[in-house]
Specification:
Helix content: 10-25%
Distance between the termini: 48 Å
Number of helices: 16
Shape: globular
Structural class: alpha+beta
Strand content: 25-35%
Strand order of the largest sheet: 8-7-6-5-4-3-2-1-15-14-13-12-11-10-9
Largest sheet: 15 strands, mixed
Length: 673
């Protein structure tokens, strides 16, 4: 057991295992138990306790502590999960009552604010019936012979209890988990073993893959004593990991193991996705929108050979090689492959979804270093299916509110981090909020000397113009302030244009986060029919604000669009980026919002193709459908120049000369075609 009032590494005082919380809430558990308050919480000879160090995007941010104790015929599994992310505390706890074979009897899960505690889920089992209460709503759920209870994906050690249940019940193919919709079908699989060296001794860890608790596979490692050694997932969009306190001396090695496991899972899940066509291909009869800004060409031909555009133009003047496979695209439109210039591919499943939606290039704007490098290699070598990946290396200042694993307090530290990223093939640096002016200047100078560009947040130590003058080439998010039409804004935009600054507004992410929860997601992002129910349950359900009305949210969005219009009219390049949101589909929404901001459909399409390629200094390689360029293209069922939303109507996608049907890619990732 942990001590009350113990301080964590973030300087916060807290409690775990809920000692101060249980005695007055004991009655919420199983009716068959007289009361939990009467049960001593002292560690017994049968108790097992452990601590897990929590990492968020590679940075240690908190702890989870759990205890498994046998009292009479009941096993109690208690966990407390707490970390601080950029000044925001995330605190959850759960208590389970289980039979000796881990058959569930009850679960109560809590979320904590600084001064309040809320029961977010409560489950009581009676044979194959579960009484479930979640967010104040109750239901009675019928269960399959194999059933369990989990509170979302935190606390993390709940997964250890699930694995023990699975193992003691004959390792069933699937388990019904509650709360769900009404249940979630979860699969546990023994996926391998990994070895680490701790205190000069080898330890063999057993690896399990869990699929179905959230959208995306989770990985759990268990040691020889049946304790959780490591957990890895991206349930909230960004990566979260936890390493047992006994293995912290090998934490770097553990992170490498987790990266390799996730990428290997991606290779397995996309192994059956084969190209619909490859080699020399001629797309015949469609409308060509080449992305250059030139007028569309009706009755066009696009020839692909050796992964490159060999010809593109009017059918009457374009020669088709005799050995080409002809694909009739009459009535369809051919456009360049789309880009997402602000992605976070912390979850392997994002890669095939991006490709299925026609996004053939992404810029990852901050990731765990080993996973980003391993993922890019797996895709670029053809072992896994996904978009071309460009990498921006995240760097922040130091301190308890810093973000990511790479922190620099001095110019020399900043320069060293730039060199490390460059040695691993990163194209850019991404600055974050806590960097000092001296470090910003050093990072920008070193990056430019090495042929890298610099993007990111405006550090709080600098104004927008000071950051640009320090060497920032691009800006992430809509950091520009001012009233459209004002002299103040005009002066700022004039300066940005002179400096050649590129803007990545991520307005679709702002819309998702800022919309009123009274307005269904489907009203502005028609995608819910494609989403796994666990995506809707654990991601989309938390988007938006419960404290504003729809009219207020729309007015705020319109102000952002007016600012984007002013930036565009000033001649400053704007690229399409989404931050998080829904992979691929949010790129469509970004373009739609640009049209609402006053872009022509051609301008919006170019923001997600040619302008993005130019921002990454890749105009000679990709971004338009011109001879010699990489064969990244889409076949659409309708013309986006007539309605930008037609970009959503993807029939087929080609990346690096390989043509794919979207449905197998969606299915591989758990999306609904």
């Amino acid at each position: 057991m942990g001590e009350e009032g113990k301080q964590d590494d973030n300087g916060r005082t807290g409690r775990y295992f809920g000692r101060a919380y249980r005695s007055d809430h004991a009655g919420v558990l199983v009716k068959a138990l007289t009361t939990l308050a009467a049960v001593s919480l002292a560690v017994t000879a049968h108790a097992q306790t452990d601590s897990l160090r929590i990492y968020y995007v590679g940075r240690p941010v908190g702890w989870e502590r759990y205890e498994v104790a046998r009292r009479g015929d009941t096993t109690f599994f208690d966990a407390d999960f707490s970390y601080v992310d950029r000044g925001r505390r995330v605190h959850a706890a759960s208590t389970m009552a289980l039979a000796s074979d881990y058959t569930p009897r009850a679960l109560t899960a809590y979320r904590f604010a600084d001064t309040t505690r809320t029961i977010v889920a409560q489950v009581e089992f009676d044979e194959r019936i579960a009484a479930v209460t979640r967010s104040g709503r109750g239901a009675t759920v019928s269960l399959s012979p194999f059933s369990f209870a989990l509170s979302a994906y935190t606390p993390l050690s709940q997964h250890l209890a699930l694995i023990r249940y699975w193992s003691s019940h004959g390792k069933p193919d699937t388990i019904d988990v509650v709360p769900g919709t009404p249940t979630n079908r979860v699969a546990v699989r023994l996926s391998g073993r990994d070895t680490v060296i701790v205190d000069k001794k080898s330890q063999v860890l057993t690896r399990y893959t869990i699929d179905g608790v959230i959208w995306g596979r989770e990985q759990v490692w268990v040691d020889a004593a049946n304790r959780m050694a490591m957990f890895a997932a991206a349930g909230g969009g960004l990566s979260i990991k936890a390493v047992s306190a006994t293995l912290l001396s090998s934490a770097d090695r553990m992170m490498e193991i987790a990266s390799r496991a996730a990428v290997n899972d991606l290779v397995r899940m996309t192994a059956t996705v084969k190209p619909a066509a490859s080699g020399t291909i001629a797309f015949v009869g469609g409308t060509l929108v080449d992305g250059s800004g030139a007028p569309q060409i009706d009755d066009a031909v696009v020839v692909v050979k050796n992964g490159r555009i060999a010809a593109a133009g009017a059918a009457a003047s374009t020669t088709i090689p005799k050995d080409a496979k002809r694909i009739d695209v009459h009535g369809k439109t051919v456009i360049p492959g789309l880009w997402d210039m602000h992605a976070h591919l912390h979850q392997a499943e994002w890669a095939p979804v991006y490709l299925a939606t026609g996004v053939t290039t992404v810029r990852d704007m901050g990731n765990e270093l080993p996973f980003a490098v391993d993922l890019r290699k797996a895709v670029s070598t053809g072992k896994a299916r996904g978009p071309n990946i460009l990498l921006a290396g995240l760097i922040d200042g130091d301190g308890p509110n810093a973000f990511g694993a790479m922190s620099a307090s001095t110019p020399d530290e900043g320069r060293a981090i730039v060199r490390r990223y460059k040695s691993l093939g990163f194209e850019q640096m991404k600055l974050y909020s806590l960097l000092s002016p001296a470090v910003v200047a050093a990072v920008c100078e070193e990056a430019h000397e090495l042929g890298m560009t610099v993007t990111g947040h405006i550090p709080t130590s600098l104004s927008l113009l000071a950051a640009i003058d320090s060497g920032m080439d691009q800006i992430a998010h809509l950091s520009i302030r001012g009233e459209p039409g004002s002299d103040t804004l005009r002066q700022v935009l004039d300066h940005l244009k002179k400096r050649g600054t590129v803007i990545d507004p991520t307005v679709s992410w702002n819309e998702i986060g800022g919309h009123s929860q009274a307005e269904p997601l489907e009203h502005f992002q028609p995608v819910t029919a494609h989403l796994p129910k666990t995506f809707l349950e654990f991601r989309a359900a938390g988007w938006g604000s419960a404290t504003i009305d729809t009219a207020t949210a729309h007015a705020r969005l319109q102000r952002s669009l007016a600012l984007i219009h002013a930036i565009h009219e000033a001649g400053i390049p704007i690229v399409a980026g989404t931050d998080e949101g829904v992979p691929g589909f949010s790129v469509f929404r970004e373009m739609e919002l640009y049209v609402r901001a006053g872009f022509t459909p051609m301008d919006a399409l170019r923001a997600a193709t040619a302008v993005s390629a130019a921002a990454m200094k890749l105009s000679n390689e990709v971004g338009t459908l011109e001879v010699g360029k990489r064969a990244d293209l889409l076949i659409l069922d309708a013309n986006p120049l007539e309605n930008i939303s037609n970009a959503r109507k993807v029939r087929q996608v080609m990346a690096n000369g390989l043509l794919f049907d979207p449905a197998p890619l969606f299915k591989a990732a758990g999306f609904i075609p």
